[in-house]
Amino acid sequence: MAEPDPTTVPVASARRARWTWRRRLGVAAITIAVVALVASLIVRLPYYVLSPGMSRATEDLITVRGAETFDNDGAVDFLTVSMRQVTPIEVVAAWINGTQQLRSSEEILGRLSPGENRDLDLRMMATSKDAAQYQALRRLGYDIRRLGTGAVIASVVEGGPADGSLVPGDVVTAVDGRPVELSEELIGAVSASSPGTVLVFDVEPFDESREGARPARRVEVVVGARPDEPAKGYLGVTTFTRDLSFEFPVEVSIDSGSVGGPSAGLAFTLGILDVLTPGSITGGLSIATTGTMQLDGRVGPVGGVPQKVVAARRQGVQLMLVPASELEEARAHAGGLRIEPVETLDDALAVLATVGGGDAVLPPAPPRP
After folding, report:
1. What are the distances in angstroms from CA 209 to CA 168, 169, 173, 217?
2. SS3 content of the chain, % helix, strand, coil (to 5)
3. Contact residues for 82 (Cβ-Cβ < 8 A; gap 6+)
4. Does CATH number 3.30.230.10 belong to domain 48-142+250-360?
5. Torsion of CA 192, 194, 196, 200, to 10 degrees
6. How far is residue 234's CA from residue 160's CA, in Å, rounded to a whole number?
7. CA angle at residue 124 from 119 to 128, to 5 degrees?
8. Taking the domains of the chain in order of start, what are their residue ranges?
9. What is the pTM of this model?
10. In this structure, are residues 151 and 180 in contact, taking their beta carbons and an 8 Å threshold?
11. Domains 48-142+250-360 and 147-241 alike in fold
């Protein structure tokens, strides 16, 4: 019997070793691929994706007590944006999908936690509803009393008359001994004074615990001249009313569900008008709007306009109103949808009058305060 070649054993062993290593490398590669795939599906990145949300009629959400209501043809839709923190695979999908946008966590949240941001959104929604009710009822001629506890200094113009005397966070509660409850009362007192007049302000802190807050005090300020109207007094501050509330003669509630933020203000205003008006505010059309509603009737800009336009198109609305400053962005995604710019509630009602609604079905507008 021939002796076995001693070289065949190590060769076979080497082949088996190479096969073993290849198999191990293959298993490792598959494992890494699976882990990477799973990570791409579940790991959340510090980015959010904005997607088209819903377009929903406001009239169905509005309940009124103390006034007659009407069912009209057409509808005023408010628009939402869907937002979620993304995984790696969703980042890729957002880059491919033209209707989605990526935003960093800092852009969305700032320094707030997700919970704090949610609370802020809900507070802004509540404020938006108040402004909508105020504007709608005033447009119908109702007298609405506003209440507050002082004018809060939001900012001070550097080098202006109040610089060094008033600081952000101060609350003016009286001017020359006359109580100030609303921001407008402070503005009126200053505007009614002549440049060079010395006004005496009673001031207290908005938040005593805030770092840098000054104690309650009496402040004298020499009033300057308004840049646009030199005969009127000028303080050089921006203000808002502390503890602003309203005494509404008609009770209006809006069931906005879990939706937050202020961007439905214009839609809610028009929706309330539609419910309280025997003629259709939309001229019988299905319309959609986006924009904040200010207490002076101005319509403010919002976020997520491209996604809202897409949501409106999917719903099949016939006309969309957007803040004037965002018209170009909105029309870039409009397709065949008619989109019109508005800067105020009056603008919105004028546009709707062109389709048989708006001012065409409302009583004459009362003078604004």
Report:
1. 14, 11, 19, 16
2. 35, 25, 40
3. 50, 51, 52, 53, 307
4. yes
5. -30
6. 8
7. 150
8. 48-142+250-360, 147-241
9. 0.75
10. yes
11. no
Bridge partner list, 252: 64
The tokens for 216 are 């309650």
Architecture of domain 147-241 in CATH?
Answer: Roll (2.30)
Per-residue tens of pLDDT for the chain, all 369 residues = 445 555 454 655 655 555 565 665 555 555 554 444 444 445 565 677 788 889 999 999 999 999 999 999 999 999 998 877 766 666 666 566 667 777 677 776 666 677 877 787 888 888 889 999 999 999 999 999 999 999 998 889 999 999 999 988 899 999 999 999 999 899 999 999 999 999 999 999 887 666 556 789 999 999 999 888 899 999 999 888 899 899 999 999 999 988 888 889 999 999 999 999 999 999 999 999 999 998 889 999 998 899 999 999 999 999 999 999 999 999 999 999 999 999 999 999 999 999 999 999 999 988 766
